[in-house]
Amino acid sequence: xxxxxxxxxxxxxLLANELAAIDQYFIHSRMYDDWGLAKLYERLNxxxxxxxxxxxxxxxxxxxLEGVPCMxxxxxxxxxxxxxxxxxxxxxxxxEVVQGVRKTIAICESEGDYQTREILEKLLFxxxxxxxxxxxxxxxxxxxxxxxxxxQSQMS
Length: 156
Hints:
It is an enzyme of class 1 (oxidoreductase). The protein has helices at about 5-35, 40-65, 85-110, 115-145, 145-155. By secondary structure, it is an all-alpha fold. The radius of gyration is 17 Å and the shape is elongated.
């Protein structure tokens, strides 16, 4: 089914952010593991897998619309140097994803592509209700209990 080029281009822009999220979560999870923060390692490794699933959804949809997924473009990574900066950078990336998904949903609506919109609504829910919420929660915990207590709580 030949899809709208506007939708395909917008999906490729989303793909660039999702691919960057995989890379960013990959390096951050390995940093947490190296520091002995097993709980953060496990959570970020899980998030990395979810980002792969998001990429899968987007790639399959681009192919269905007879487009070509662009796997070579990614936004710049925001690699942190400590748990707070890493989470803050991850939140920045996730909020960009939310903004991009909302923009793409609007493009899908204007182009009459309601099936792609439905796929993106699931991605938006996953990003807002899971990823963003968890990151905001962790940053809030750092403020409430202090960094030393937070870091200690993330050890195995």
